Please model this.
Amino acid sequence: MGIAENAADSATAVRRDAAVRAAVEQGLIAPDTTTATAASTAAPIVGLLDSTGIQDAAAALRAAFAQVTTAPVHHTFAVKATPLVPVLRLLHAAGIGAEVASPGELALAQAAGVPPTHTVLDSPAKTPAELRQALALGIAVNADNRQELARIDALVASAPTGSPIGLRVNPQIGGGSIDALSTATATSKFGVALRDAGARDWVVRAYADRPWLTRLHTHTGSQGIPLDLLAEGIQVAYELAEEINTHVGRQQIDTVDIGGGLPVNFASDATTPTHAAYARLLRERVPGLFDGRYALVTEFGRSLLAKQGTILARVEYTKKSGGRPIAITHAGVQVAARTVYQPESWPLRILAYDAKGHPKTGPTVPQDIAGPACFAGDLLAENRPLPLLEPGDLVAALDTGAYYFAHHYTYNSLARPGIYGYTTSDSETRFATVRTPQTLKDLVAESGGAHARTLTEGT
Ligand SMILES: *Cc1c(COP(=O)(O)O)cnc(C)c1O
Model:
């Protein structure tokens, strides 16, 4: 256990172990290949979500910002991190709304019962129809660029709207360790590039010309962005808001949307950095933003959900190749695309359990944890020291609650696993279905099953 680990973090591990054991005992996952009958429906892989952990994370986020400002803080969850309706509803019940970036994500938030007043729309490619719908519903909208703002001009002129409207700016302060997730580089596709020639003056005029433009939005990136860089992006946005408000002579910008992007510790059970530490850092670096004059919007994704999720998969076979032990499991690229394709950027912790779901003990041996897909790189971990795995054992891939099993990749037509939320109380663990496993019938349907004859017979 690391120094930063506290009681809450070890409680997470205790709940997770209980959930793994219960998943075997209650038949969510097939316990053993040799005893499974043909009629058994237990799957060889499931996604597990710690419901208590989700609620605790939401409460900690709210407390963190309540401590640094007296102004209202509207927390939203970046739906793209875990696009699961029951999760969005649980977060909403815990006081966290939804940040959506596509018609699909908006539909999920609506299905979860998140009201328009607790929803923020941020997609960089909003169509006129999506904008009209959002403004009609009163959903907060952040325009990404000049052309989108012109479309909003026309819509605002044609019908009144209750939507708070903002503009996303790119502070162009540089990237973090993962290029694909750095959104404040000089040439990022997001927002109005603030340091380009003439851009700042254009933005100030854009606000002066539009009294209804009352929010300013920035999001510097996700995993891999140092905290200092996140803070710097928010400082740039704050200074711009001050400049605009001074220019127009009133507090026209009343809300700054500071985005999400708090990085997650994938190396241990410790939640670090915490939302509280981040909120304190922001207040220290940008005190004017926290003196009560500005309401805030937050859009955290990974930092709320990553540590609440576990992929649990059965070891089907074990072998040795070139002297190295390999465990062939049912968890691979279909549930962990980022780790499989970019293992250096996205290493995952793996735990070994025996066939009954008890932590496996014994001397550790470096071994590969392979997935079921038919390409050589389909590995969850390479040369990882773990107790030597055997067929029927289980492996757990930790911290996979965001951007992993909820982001299925249909390689080899591998079906989407079921996802279950768990709560533990007094030695009893209960599961709630979050998403049912995809059936082969569903899989054939999504693969053009209804159109089987169109290419051969034309009907
Ligand atoms: C992805 C994204 C987020 C959430 O990022 P996390 O790293 O998951 O916190 C928030 N806001 C916007 C605009 C995003 O694109």
The two ends are 62 Å apart (CA to CA). Residues 313 and 380 are 11 Å apart (CA to CA). Residues 227-248 form the longest helix (22 residues). The pocket of pyridoxal-5'-phosphate is lined by residues 78, 80-81, 99, 122, 219, 222-223, 259-262, 299-303 (CB under 6 Å).
